[in-house]
Amino acid sequence: MKKEVIGKYIAIVAVLLSLVLPIGLATTAFSMYSEYQSISLFEPKETQVSADERRKGSILTLFGVGLIIPSIALLIISIAALHYRARWIVWFSVIISGFAIFVFPIGTILGAALLITLFLTRKKFVSNEVVT
Fold first, then answer.
1. By CB neighbour count within 10 A (0-12 exposed, 13-18 middle, 19+ buried), where does 79 fall?
2. How crowded is the C-beta side of 131, counted as CA atoms within 13 Å?
3. 25, 36, 90, 108 — which has fewest CB within 10 A?
4. 125 Cβ partners below 8 Å, 6+ apart?
């Protein structure tokens, strides 16, 4: 198997790992929105969002924060070592490193390393070669 093909599969695994963070954040935000919506009504009611729903969102967010670190490491390996050069990986890596900057200190270091890797290899992403 060619290095680029292996890099493609590693990049796909990294994408799947890093999708847990936005899902966790969305789950947490939705449960908070539902809770505030029920509080903002004019009748004093018990909130309809259970603690279990909030816990699920928090756990997904924590898993996402934990999984973003190996995801960035896999993206760096895919780009730098295995020479996978798809255009979508550049923009996805920029967005993920933006999320990771806030996971101090490891996420900040790996996010900066990913941005530096993208910057150093930016001219190699121009080719339109399709990896199968």
1. buried
2. 23
3. 36
4. 85, 86, 87, 90
Please classify residue 83 by burial: count the beta carbons closer than 10 Å to its beta carbon, then call 0-12 exposed, 13-18 middle and 19+ buried. middle
Q: Quick one: tokens of 10?
A: 């590693």
Task: Give the per-residue pLDDT at 15.
Answer: 93
CA angle in degrees (0–180, nearest 5) for 59-94-22 = 20
Q: Tokens 């967010």 correspond to what residue?
A: 61
- Element of type H or E holding 61: helix 51-76
First to last CA, the chain: 10
In angstroms, the CA 120 to CA 117 distance is: 5
Cα(12)–Cα(113) distance, integer angstroms: 19
Give the residue ranges of the chain where pLDDT is below 50. Answer: none
